[in-house]
Amino acid sequence: MTSMEAHGRSAEQQRGENGRSIPAILVYTFLACALAWLVALPLWLGDGLASPAALPLMLVMMCTPTIAALAVVWKVDRPRRTAHALGFVPVTPVGRLIGYLALGLFLPIALCVLALVIGSLLGLFPGDFTHFSGLQQITAAQLAQAGAPDMELPVATLIVGQFVNVFVAALFINIIPALGEEIGWRGWLLPKLMRFGPWGAILISGIIWGLWHAPVILLGYNYTGTPGWLALLAMIGFCTVMGGLFGWLRLRSGSVWAPALAHSSLNAAATLPLVFIAENGVYDPLHANITGWSGWLLPAALVVVLVLAGRFAAREK
């Protein structure tokens, strides 16, 4: 076979893969969302988020994006290199991967803390960043509920303990379910959406990811007390902003591992409001914390800077 013939076949294969992209995206979106509703159906037919099965079912639901991606890769997309298409590789150069893994671990935690600071400055989050009165109150209540003797632990010990829990959860507990989502969302879907440009990819992937959460959001997850339609819009906004950062990690690192760790870290950091809240403090997650609009301000600004700087693109080998 001549080099010209080989090039012709390669170009023909590429056109075939590109021609399958839109149908593959549509099939993938339908499968991921349909499977999520199927998994969550027992909650809708039962006690909702109060059901003992809620957490196990939500963990299973987190695997549906990967199941959908595998089905589409095998039956619709049929890429030449499956591992690349799903974001498993490349993992070299190792130094670059380690750097983006570190960003994936620390950046979401930093953004969650800063979201609380911004919310406090705007009067939306009742924070206590000096005496940590809420953390002490919560710890005392937990000890009393467990029947443990009343003890006064140093505030620094309580804070360090909470952050240790966040890092342990991010590295060892949340990472598997986070991969269950990220292999689908950022591993497979995001590169397919880059045909629409950075803004298109960020917006479309954010809408799809946000709508995928509908089975639990409409039951009150994340935005308790908020009307369902508004909670779903808020989830789409949250997913668009954070998905933009996760997408950047995917494109610049070249694989799914950094955004998966970032997703795991973000989920682990959900407990951080307990560290910084004031005694007897309450807040609306629609307005405060990383889930609320005030918490999106900083990550949204980062996404805008990355896109305008031309950094929301695959890194050159």
Notes on the protein architecture:
- The protein has 317 residues and is an all-alpha fold.
- Helices cover 71% and strands 0% of the residues.
- The protein contains 14 helices and no strands.
- Mean pLDDT is 93; it is low at 1-16.
How would the blueprint of this fold be written?
Elements: H1 3-45, H2 54-61, H3 64-77, H4 82-85, H5 94-121, H6 133-145, H7 155-173, H8 175-193, H9 197-212, H10 214-217, H11 228-253, H12 257-268, H13 273-276, H14 293-308
Helix pairs in contact: 1-2, 1-3, 3-8, 5-11, 5-12, 5-14, 7-12, 8-9, 8-11, 8-12, 9-11, 11-12, 11-14
- Report the span from N to C terminus: 28 Å
Question: How would you describe the shape?
Answer: globular
**What's the story with the biggest beta sheet?**
none
Total beta strands: 0
Please write the string of helix (H) and strand (E) elements. HHHHHHHHHHHHHH
Helix content: over 70%
| Secondary structure category | mainly alpha
User: What is the typical, i.e. mean, pLDDT?
Assistant: 93
Supply the number of helical segments.
14
Contiguous low-pLDDT stretches (5 residues minimum) are: 1-16
- Rounded to an integer in angstroms, the radius of gyration calculated over CA atoms is 21 Å
Strand content: under 5%
